[in-house]
Amino acid sequence: MDLNKVQIIGRITQDIEMRQTPNGQNVTTLSIATNRNWTDGAGMRQEQAEFHNVVLWAKLAEIANQYLQKGKKVYIEGRLQTRNWEAQDGSKRYKTEIVGENMIMLDGPGGNSWDMPAARSDTPANQSAPVKKSSPKKEEEISVEDLPF
To answer: CB-based contacts of 114: which residues, under 8 Å, 6+ apart?
Structure first.
């Protein structure tokens, strides 16, 4: 059994770009940064950013183009795909991308969370769901005694 599945949560690093293929299919490309934080052996806090190229197709591309923008937090689920082509200078080029199949917008227009189901590339009912803005919910404070472990 093989598995090619990617899940990332990160922030969009540049403006969204949507275009159409020659046969009229919508495609949106975006770049997402994910951060990793850790404490090294000397007790110093370290941070490393990783940048991911993401491609969204069809209705999911339209939704992303309409609602996402630079700096917004988003969850993307999909698969890895590597493309190759020959550059003008004759060299072979490669690009590995995440082909997004599901997307959850985590930031609303004012930085608030959206109260919205995930958009899926393979489920037409969810693709056209309108975005609803909800008021931020207050989180209850949890004490250590409330934890079950």
So the answer is: 105, 106, 107, 108, 131, 132, 133, 134
In angstroms, the CA 98 to CA 71 distance is 19
**Distance (Å, whole) CA 89 – CA 143:** 62
Q: Which CATH architecture has domain 6-130?
A: Beta Barrel (2.40)
This prediction has a pTM of: 0.70
pLDDT at residue number 107: 81
CA 36 to chain centre: 16
Pairing mode of beta strands 92-105, 45-57? parallel
User: Could you report the per-residue pLDDT of 50-76, keeping only the tens digit for each?
Assistant: 999 999 999 999 999 999 999 999 999
Residue 43 backbone zone (phi > 0: left; psi -120 to 50: alpha; other: beta): left
**148/19 Cα distance (integer angstroms):** 50
Q: Which helix (H) or strand (E) holds 39?
A: strand 26-39
What type of residue sits at position 89? D
User: What percent of the chain clears pLDDT 90, i.e. is strictly above it?
Assistant: 68
